[in-house]
Amino acid sequence: MNEQIVGLDIGDVRIGVAVSDASRTIASPVEVITRVGWGPDTRKILEICKRYQTSIVVSGLPLNMDGSEGFQAQKVRGLCQQLEKNGLTVYYQDERLSTVTAEDALLESSMRRADRKKNVDKVAAAVILQSWLDARTIQGGKP
């Protein structure tokens, strides 16, 4: 198991990107993509996956607090379907409160407000990916 995994926090304006280490133990924030449209966004994510030599993506799924899927979850699934059509395998991770967790972590690091705003999406992607990795470790599961 030496293939890294890319994690995504897909929003309307930005997509936060994180990547796991080869052992799939630790997720690290990588970058933030400014949304342009499904085509360019898909191409950028494919480029990132190629850079990290992976075809596996974990996307945060924005569920409502009662666990149901709303309009935002449908939009995320729509982009992820484009990724799957381009050969990527997509897994979903409940992302409820991931941005709050990311903001709290950045506040604890004493990061300036302007810097937090630039980094919160990629840190949220790392939170999402780390949650997914941890769940697989606890369950003893793969990939």
Most strands sheet: 5 strands, mixed
Which runs of at least 5 residues are low in confidence (pLDDT < 50)?
Answer: none
What is the overall silhouette?
Answer: globular
**Overall pLDDT:** 85
How is the largest sheet built, in terms of strand order? 3-2-1-4-5
Binned, the helix content reads: 40-55%
- Quantity of strands, as a count: 5
Whole-Å distance between the termini? 8 Å
Structural class: alpha/beta
Percent of sequence in beta strands: 15-25%
Please, how many helices?
A: 4
The H-and-E topology, N to C, reads as EEEHEHEHH
Rg value:
14 Å
Q: Which structural traits does this protein have?
A:
143 residues; 5-stranded mixed sheet; globular; 5 strands; alpha/beta
Description:
- The protein is of the alpha/beta class and 143 residues long.
- It is built from 4 helices and 5 strands; from the N terminus they run E-E-E-H-E-H-E-H-H.
- It has helices at 38-51, 71-85, 98-108, 113-139; strands spanning 6-10, 14-20, 27-34, 56-61, 89-94.
- It has a 5-stranded mixed β-sheet, with helices on both faces.
- Helix 2 links the parallel strand 4 and strand 5.
- Helix 3 (98-108) packs across helix 4 (113-139).
- The termini are close together.
